[in-house]
Specification:
Blueprint lengths: L1 E3 L11 E5 L2 E5 L5 E2 L1 E7 L6 E7 L20 E5 L2 E8 L4 E7 L10 E3 L4 E8 L2 E9 L5 E8 L11 E4 L8 E8 L2 E8 L7 E7 L7 E2 L16 E11 L5 E9 L13 E9 L5 E3 L8 E3 L14 E3 L11 E2 L7 E3 L3 E4 L13 E6 L5 E9 L3 E9 L2 E10 L2 E10 L2 E11 L3 E8 L3 E8 L2 E9 L5 H4 L6 E7 L7 E10 L1
Antiparallel strand pairs: 1-23, 2-3, 3-5, 4-25, 5-6, 7-8, 8-9, 9-10, 11-12, 12-13, 13-14, 15-16, 16-17, 17-18, 19-20, 20-21, 21-22, 24-38, 26-27, 27-38, 28-37, 29-34, 29-38, 30-31, 30-37, 31-32, 32-33, 34-35, 35-36
Bound molecules: (Z)-L-Arabinonhydroximo-1,4-lactone (6LW).
Length: 498
């Protein structure tokens, strides 16, 4: 069959996967968003459904002081002796930790800290031993992929942290994962930074602690030499073996907005690339070491159809799965119902790295029509296309002394301006509509059935190239302005991709 990449669209970076019986599970970085670390499952590697989050309680993750793109970095998901483990870093606190669960559809444990620095922690289990790896500096001052053995019940180190591999020479050696395949140990990593030079590299050895010999043709996967190709920045991934024994790489990458438009605003997405072992025990990846927009493969049967959900509404999404908050939300400010949401604004605006009243869903594709009806009693409420507090476009209703107005506000770094306003007198409700293309957002308001274009803005100013950071655009519904009661009601939300 032919499948298309990305297999998961939108801001789901740093994927890590494991397989238990006939099901694959996948987790991602979540940074300042809560709940933390979304979990997806699949039976066939190409159709994925979200089933929960690993970090659902404040006791598991401290996000209060986390800047945008700080907080929860790249996780690793592993399964050992009937138990799932998810290890990650709170980069803001510089703390590596893991949580566990015996039921992946339920709650996870409180965090168990590990006293080894660096980011992108990994766990490898063998014969009752647990090895913990991250990229950082070891107990002897040597940098690289750093490893120690830990007691899995407590996280206590049983051995000093020791650097086991320095990579192939690229900058930002990260995302280590250790595996045993065909009797040998393979150490997978990413290098080059999570931008256009990103790549996957690996080494192998005869022991889980090394020494490791680098693959001579590293990088095994990169799109960095494919100029004018929509898929870029492929790297950071995890190997997974399918039901038939084939190996695959689930990894991140991004889609730039056009063939030569080197901007991406949807974040880093999930790609599936086939891995092929040679007789010498070294493996290659994808098409001549690159990832493609689609792969023709006989590893997945023709009867499997790659499905894609094109329409997201209040009714067909789950508040606990599809939607997310900035840092720790004050839950009393949200009234979530099957067909509407009521929000209570506070004095915290979208301009600050805090927790404004905001509930968001990731923008998953370039071409979309996003719409929602909003009614307001005080303050301001609407839709924000949110990359971070300094890079976002707001389309909202706002109360002023004489009545109400619609505003389209563009925030690009230090340039903050209300670009367009339209007074609507005493009318306190409107339909807000955003039409999205790869390169532009068009902002409309509809009052009494009449649609008016307020303005247009380029997507590139919300891109990672402009905003920096590690996230992608999230479509947020928000309310601001202190109010005794809920000051905004949102109904008829839809985001339809084409
Ligand atoms: C992550 C690092 C990376 O920790 O980006 O692409 C960082 N790779 O491995 C944040 O997602």
């Amino acid at each position: 069959m032919k499948y298309n990449n990305p297999v998961i669209k939108g801001f789901y970076p740093d994927p890590s996967a494991c397989k238990v019986e006939d099901t694959y599970y996948l987790v991602y970085s979540s940074f300042q968003y809560f709940p933390g670390v979304p979990i997806f499952e699949s039976k066939d590697l190409i159709n994925w459904t979200q089933i929960g989050h690993c970090l659902t309680r404040k006791s598991q993750v401290q996000l209060d002081t986390v800047d945008s793109s700080g907080g929860v970095f790249a996780p690793t998901l592993r399964y050992n002796n009937g138990r799932f483990y998810m290890t990650t870093t709170n980069d803001t606190l510089r703390q590596n930790f893991y949580v566990w669960t015996d039921n992946i559809y339920g709650e996870w444990s409180d965090p168990i800290n590990v006293d080894q620095g660096g980011i992108d922690p990994d766990l490898y289990f063998e014969d009752g031993k647990a090895f913990f790896m991250s990229n950082g500096i070891d107990d002897y001052g040597v940098s690289g992929i750093v490893q120690c053995e830990i007691e899995i019940e407590t996280g206590h180190k049983l051995t000093p942290s020791r650097s086991i591999w320095q990579g192939s020479g690229g900058r930002y050696l990260e995302s280590p994962h250790l595996y045993k395949m065909n009797g040998r140990y393979y150490l997978l990593a990413a290098e080059g930074g999570t931008e256009y030079g990103h790549m996957v590299t690996y080494a192998r050895g005869d022991s889980p602690t090394g020494p490791f010999e680098a693959y001579t043709h590293n990088p095994v996967l990169t799109n960095r030499n494919l100029g004018g190709y929509e898929l870029q920045g492929v790297g950071h991934g995890d190997l997974i073996q399918d039901h038939d024994g084939n190996w695959w790489l689930l990894h991140l990458g991004f889609r730039q907005t056009g063939q030569y438009l080197t901007y991406h605003h949807l974040g880093r997405e999930v790609f599936l690339t086939p891995i092929t072992f040679g007789d010498d025990g070294w493996f290659t990846a994808g098409h001549e070491g690159t990832t493609l927009l689609s792969f023709e493969t006989d590893r997945i049967t023709d009867t499997i159809v790659q499905q894609e959900k094109k329409e997201f509404t209040f009714e067909n999404t789950d508040w606990n799965l599809d939607w997310c908050y900035l840092r720790h939300p004050v839950t009393a400010n949200y009234q979530l119902e099957a067909d509407k949401v009521k929000l209570k604004g506070t004095s915290i605006t979208l301009d600050v790295p805090a927790s404004p009243t905001f509930i968001g869903i990731r923008q998953k594709d370039f071409n979309a029509i996003i719409s929602c009806e909003v009614s307001l009693t005080s303050g301001e409420a609407g839709i924000t296309l949110y990359m971070d507090e300094n890079h976002r476009y707001d389309l909202a209703l706002r109360k002023h002394l004489e009545g109400y107005e619609i505003i389209e506000r563009l925030n690009i770094g230090d340039i903050k301006s209300i670009e367009h306003t339209k007074s609507i007198g005493q009318c306190n409700h409107a339909a807000l509509i955003i039409k999205s293309t790869p390169t532009h957002y068009h902002f409309y308001a509809q009052i009494d059935g009449i649609e008016t274009l307020l303005g247009t803005a380029q997507t590139k100013y919300l891109s990672s190239e402009i905003a920096g950071g590690f996230t992608g655009v999230v479509i947020g519904l928000y309310a601001t302005g202190e109010s005794q009661d809920f000051n905004a009601t949102f109904t008829n939300f839809s985001c339809i991709y084409s």
